[in-house]
């Protein structure tokens, strides 16, 4: 009787929103622990964006300043933050693919927890990692001249947009993990599209520098809208259209992915 009562209490707790959040937080903490215990992951995640930032600045800083009349770091620092979130889709998807097909998932499923907490915990851990990189890159970029010149509110808006962009990336990663038959397929699915969107964006060079024929495509690119919005919130410039376009992209893709991921995950759990 006592065991049955305890089990029922656990099931009630697992089904509640508070219980789901608490369980997702615990699993998100597990994701972060695995991340910080891997020196290679730390080096790749934090070292590569900073290396890319300073290498591109050293190569193109004077060229961009002389030809376009603007400081390159103003545009490059937001781009590096977004590219880091974009490039993490593949590794995050593979890690989640392994998790849900290993003994870890079976052990978690044997516990009185909401199965969706496994899904949300992965996304929460990855989102915290993306925000940590965003803060680090913003701080380090102060050395070559990056500044939040539009006030505290705009700086907070800067990180809110980064969080929404990160949420979109983690959502795509989870859908890829649930859909791929094996890990190498994931890289084929995400590597080329993310690389193409990054290269065909106004992050590496302003929109006016692109040929007229491709300019509308570049302007509508979600990386371009996010870069322009982050530049407007940090340095100044057009704000309304880039912010609204970024909100449309990030919220729209995240909601679409949420519908697909919940359906696929429930099907996966049901076996």
Automatic annotation (TrEMBL):
What processes in GO biological process is this protein linked to?
A: response to antibiotic
Keywords assigned: Antibiotic resistance, Cell membrane, Membrane, Transmembrane, Transmembrane helix, Transport
Q: Where are the transmembrane segments?
A: 40-64, 76-98, 119-143, 155-177, 239-262
Please indicate which superkingdom the organism of origin belongs to. Answer: Bacteria
Does the keyword Glycoprotein belong to this entry? no
**Which Pfam families does the entry mention?**
ABC2_membrane
* GO molecular function terms listed in the Swiss-Prot or TrEMBL record: ABC-type transporter activity
- Residues annotated as coiled-coil are none
Look up and give the membrane topology term.
Multi-pass membrane protein
InterPro entries named among the record's database cross-references: ABC2_TM, ABC2_TM_bact-type, ABC_2_transport, Nod_factor_ABC_transporter
Provide one Gene Ontology cellular component: ATP-binding cassette (ABC) transporter complex
Domain ABC transmembrane type-2 spans what residues?
40-268
Instruction: Give its localization.
Output: Cell membrane; Membrane
Q: So what family is this one in?
A: Belongs to the ABC-2 integral membrane protein family.
Q: What is this protein called?
A: Transport permease protein
Which organism's genome codes for this protein? Streptomyces sp. R41
């Amino acid at each position: 009787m006592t065991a049955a009562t305890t089990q029922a209490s656990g099931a009630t707790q697992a089904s509640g929103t508070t219980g789901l959040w608490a369980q997702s937080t615990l699993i998100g903490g597990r994701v972060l622990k695995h991340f910080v215990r891997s020196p290679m992951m730390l080096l790749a995640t934090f070292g590569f964006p900073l290396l890319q930032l300073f290498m591109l600045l050293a190569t193109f800083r004077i060229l961009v300043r002389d030809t376009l009349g603007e400081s390159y770091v103003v545009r490059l620092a937001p781009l590096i933050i977004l590219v880091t979130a974009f490039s993490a889709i593949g590794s995050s998807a593979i890690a989640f693919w392994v998790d849900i097909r290993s003994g870890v998932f079976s052990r978690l499923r044997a516990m009185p927890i909401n199965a969706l907490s496994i899904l949300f915990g992965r996304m929460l851990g990855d989102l915290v990692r993306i925000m940590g990189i965003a803060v680090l890159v913003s701080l380090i970029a102060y050395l070559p001249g990056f500044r939040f010149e539009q006030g505290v509110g705009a700086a907070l808006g800067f990180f809110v947009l980064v969080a929404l962009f990160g949420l979109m990336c983690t959502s795509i990663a989870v859908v890829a993990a649930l859909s791929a038959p094996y890990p190498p397929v994931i890289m084929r699915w995400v590597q080329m599209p993310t690389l193409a969107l990054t290269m065909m964006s106004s992050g590496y060079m302003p929109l006016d520098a692109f040929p007229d024929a491709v300019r509308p495509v570049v302007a509508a690119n979600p990386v371009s809208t996010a870069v322009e919005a982050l530049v407007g919130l940090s340095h100044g410039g057009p704000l309304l259209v880039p912010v609204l376009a970024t909100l449309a992209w990030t919220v729209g893709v995240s909601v679409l992915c949420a519908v697909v991921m919940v359906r696929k995950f429930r099907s996966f759990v049901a076996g």
